[in-house]
Amino acid sequence: MKALEGVRILDMTHVQSGPTCTQLLAWFGADVIKVERPGTGDPTRAQLRDIPDVDSLYFTMLNHNKRSITLNTKHENGKAIFTRLIEVCDVLAENFAPGALDRMGFSWERIQEINPRIIYASVKGFGPGPYEDLKVYENVAQCTGGGASTTGFPEGPPVVAGAQIGDSGTGVNLALGIVTALFQRETTGRGQRVVCAMQDTVLNLCRVKLRDQQRLAHGPLTEYPQYPDGTFGEATPRAGNASGGGQPGWIVKCKGWETDPDAYIYVIAQAAAFEGLAKVIGHADWLEDPEWNTPAARLDKIERMFDEIEKWTLTKAKFEVMKILNPLNIPCGPVLSMKELAEEPSLRATGTVVEVDHPTRGKYLSVGNPIKLSDSPADVRRSPLLGEHTDEVLRGVLGMDDQAIAAAKADGAV
Ligand SMILES: CC(C)(COP(=O)(O)OP(=O)(O)OC[C@H]1O[C@@H](n2cnc3c(N)ncnc32)[C@H](O)[C@@H]1OP(=O)(O)O)[C@@H](O)C(=O)NCCC(=O)NCCS
Questions:
Q1: What pLDDT was estimated at residue 378?
Q2: Who lines ligand 1 at CB under 6 A?
Q3: Model pTM?
Q4: Ligand 1 nearest-atom number relative to CA 18
């Protein structure tokens, strides 16, 4: 049995943020019925296609374990079918532009009228305020949530992260909002509205930068590369690869960096492991030197310290560095490329990376469920073809007969 078996989700999500959420819930066993516009479906089916006329990896990697029905929710009969689906579902999830569902005639008030037990969950770009009506994509959220202004090197422009913290991050928050609301419904018997804004998610994930904004009022941020020679302005600056915690850290080059763009390793010069680090890089002298042998004394020499560490790491491959530092309890992490991650056997063994077979695409790799439950195994099943389950859902979930289904098809509702 899976944890969310028996939970039925009416999934109006598209692109990345919403589908991330409903895919997680599907992996936990919810019956996720993805409602797509007849003809085109989720726009990502056709975006960044690598094989002509085949659902893109963008789509297939976000819509595992779901069923797909096509339904025109602006069509009169389509609305009637949609209303019946709301009646029999536990959750309605969507991430349309603000107001889209209201424009279809389905306000929160109307949805509650149809099914007072339903949880209506949305991703929006912004919460209530000056930007609430805007359409938002990943990088807009990273820029407006504090991610970009605090990412990159001090002398360079703002940079967005490769990790999709705005989209997938918000999807994860929405999933938690949904299961929490389902839990509360056990007591109250009522559904509720769940809204997650992408700006809020990015800012929430940037909390250490908001922490630093307040620390700035009390002096320079001593772990930032701007210290001691650079200047600090009024806002949290970009800190390059400095660690967000209290320990100095940096990315240093390893052997082969001239030709391999990922021949780097992150090293944390943690106070507790400093002795081992100093010795292994050939700087036992630091341990006797009052200029070096306390964390406070080293603070204004962090750049020089990592230059010296790098002289040593440059003589070794990144995995070799890791092998030497790990037994010394020196926290470090090689910069792994997507190729290395895709080929890593342990990630395949845990299901974090999975190979999936698809009828028109063939085999492809995807990320599996990163949340491991001992009593609810997550098997990753391929994404549905557009409208693959239309008949099955209309018949099995709504009890429509062949004649009614044929009529709905004939008038363009499905
Ligand atoms: C992502 C986003 C920018 C895309 O914008 P978009 O491509 O213009 O898509 P919209 O959400 O506006 O939806 C397009 C239209 O399709 C309609 N539509 C979607 N599914 C439909 C269906 N099954 N039947 C009929 N109409 C449908 C919508 O009602 C909307 O119509 P409207 O403009 O008349 O209201 C926007 O949806 C958004 O800001 N979402 C919230 C934030 C978010 O999740 N962003 C991250 C995406 S990864």
A1: 86
A2: 15-18, 35-37, 71-74, 95-97, 100, 103-104, 123-125, 135-137, 167
A3: 0.96
A4: 44
